[in-house]
């Protein structure tokens, strides 16, 4: 009896299994809702970015030419001055006394020359004596000019208009040649020097638009243009220095600032996709391409430049193909997809049949 009961139980299970509904295949499941976009050629403006250093168009450290005591200082730190404005007057009492002596000697030499010219006209002196007196007169005048030049060096003037830095001297201080008095910078127009790899020099041309940003003003962009490209390549970095010019009317840019430079390259046609559509696995990049039957497959792509949330595809896709933009994290190869809120492509085709 026990054996008969077991046989009946097994027979009942077999009959129940035969009558059960078959498990539906995975393909019969609902399509995955995703966002789909068509790849097209679009206008694209690539850019080249590099860190640069700002410097004034004209910049100099004001120094004295002679050793002398400071008599008067005509400026204060941070003053804006005109070209030729006096900055420091040095004591020049000895030179003024020497100038008075030299002027007296020159006047006497001139009077003697005039008198000897009268005597020479009467043939009372030799012409050689007249020539000697003329040379004496010329030497006396040269001595006057020399001392006046020395006195001029006692007044230190601004070589160009600009803004002064910190004052380094005070009245009564002894200055010598090379002693720093102050720095002077023309801040109305600034230069920014930045490196460009030699492989990208073909993309740089004089007059190209340049944008600059500084950490001190993160929300502001400075507009400039490429001024010149250095003639030499640094053998260590394999890069050339490019100089961009920026108008700086409010003096927001200062010498020595770090400027993030962005060179705007010419607009061109490129195959662009949203960056969120690209899946990165190790060194491989791919997108989910939607086939005509509504299923997805991986398409490995090569990425060029990136800008404003879009990436340039240089290999792996063609214009007109459709890709999944949003929802890539839940896909597997062969999955059926549909644009969010619509039927899948395969279902739409089947409905027409």
Report on this model:
The chain is of the alpha+beta class and 353 residues long. It contains four helices and 20 strands. The longest helix has 29 residues, at 93-121. The chain has three domains: 28-44 and 270-352, conserved putative lor/sdh protein from methanococcus maripaludis s2 fold (Beta Barrel), CATH 2.40.420; 48-57 and 186-268, Efflux pump adaptor protein, beta barrel domain (Elongation Factor Tu (Ef-tu), domain 3), CATH 2.40.30.170; 92-153, Helix Hairpins.
What is this structure, in a nutshell?
The chain has helices at residues 2-19, 93-121, 127-152, 345-352, and strands spanning 32-38, 40-63, 68-73, 80-81, 86-90, 155-157, 162-164, 174-175, 180-197, 209-214, 217-234, 239-247, 258-274, 279-281, 284-290, 296-300, 302-307, 310-315, 322-326, 337-339.
Query: Mean pLDDT, as a whole number?
Result: 83
- The oligomerization state is single chain
User: What's the number of domains?
Assistant: 3
What separation lies between the terminal Cα atoms?
Answer: 60 Å
Q: Supply the CATH architecture of the largest domain.
A: Beta Barrel
Number of strands: 20
Rg of Cα set: 43 Å
**Which class do the helix and strand fractions yield?**
alpha+beta
Number of helices: 4
Quick one: overall form? Answer: rod-shaped
Helical coverage, percent range = 10-25%
CATH class of the largest domain: Mainly Beta
Order of SSEs, N→C?
A: HEEEEEHHEEEEEEEEEEEEEEEH
Major sheet description: 6 strands, mixed
User: Uncertain regions: pLDDT < 50 for 5+ in a row?
Assistant: 1-28, 341-353
Proportion of beta-strand residues: 35-45%
What CATH calls the topology of the largest domain is: conserved putative lor/sdh protein from methanococcus maripaludis s2 fold
